[in-house]
Write a structure and sequence with these properties.
The protein has 5 helices and no strands. The relative contact order is 0.14. The longest helix has 33 residues. The N and C termini lie far apart (50 Å). The chain is mostly helical. The site of fe (ii) ion has 6 residues, from helix 1 and helix 2.
Length: 197
């Protein structure tokens, strides 16, 4: 009978595989970016991701399990799409917006996965593992928010073929520590608009 412990270890193996694939993909994405702030953000997330692989190995240890990966088909697909979009948009004004959208799709998958893993680790009575999973979750949310800011400050405007200087003033700031638990909106500025009847 498969129960929460089995589900947790299955999902953990999925994310262990995902992070190791992301470690290989991020340098390529950073190289494909033509915006230096985006390159820096992707390189910084690469270092975080390398640390996440080690954190996941510790989580396995906290459950007395050997670290093992299980091919994460979702990440394989998302990274493949990212590769394709980087090739298709190379040399064009929309390249950075394209890379941001690809990276944000990966982040959102990770945020959903670590949200579940964190909750399950708590339910399974393993607060040490839950603490590490929360740390990773916070890093993914912050990375997503950095990407939002970069998209809004420059890359979306560049993609229109316009100067970043013409971007709206409130989107002009990129620097600053992203808030944890920040809004999960996409680079397209995915705020919900409620229409009145
Ligand atoms: Fe990650």
């Amino acid at each position: 009978m498969k129960k929460l412990n089995d589900l947790f270890l299955d999902e953990l193996a999925d994310m262990y595989d995902a992070e190791r694939r992301i470690v290989k993909a991020l340098p390529k994405m950073a190289k494909a970016a033509t915006n230096s702030e985006l390159t820096k953000a992707l390189e910084s997330h690469l270092r975080e991701t390398e640390g996440q692989v080690l954190k996941l190995e510790q989580v396995f240890q906290f459950f007395n399990e050997k670290a093992k990966g299980k091919a994460c088909e979702a990440t394989i697909g998302l990274l493949k799409e990212g590769d394709e979009i980087a090739v298709d948009f190379k040399g064009f004004p929309a390249i950075n917006a394209a890379l941001i959208s690809a990276a944000q799709k990966v982040e959102h998958y990770e945020i959903a996965s670590y949200g579940c893993l964190h909750a399950w680790a708590l339910l399974l009575g393993n607060p040490k593992a839950a603490g590490l999973l929360q740390e990773i979750l916070d890093q993914e949310k912050a990375a997503n928010e950095t990407l939002n800011k970069l998209a809004q400050a420059s890359s979306n405007q560049e993609a229109l073929g316009e100067s970043p200087k013409s971007a709206p003033k409130e989107f002009g700031k990129v620097a600053g520590k992203p808030r944890t638990g920040a809004r999960l909106i996409g680079a397209g500025g995915g705020r919900t608009v409620f229409s009145r009847r």
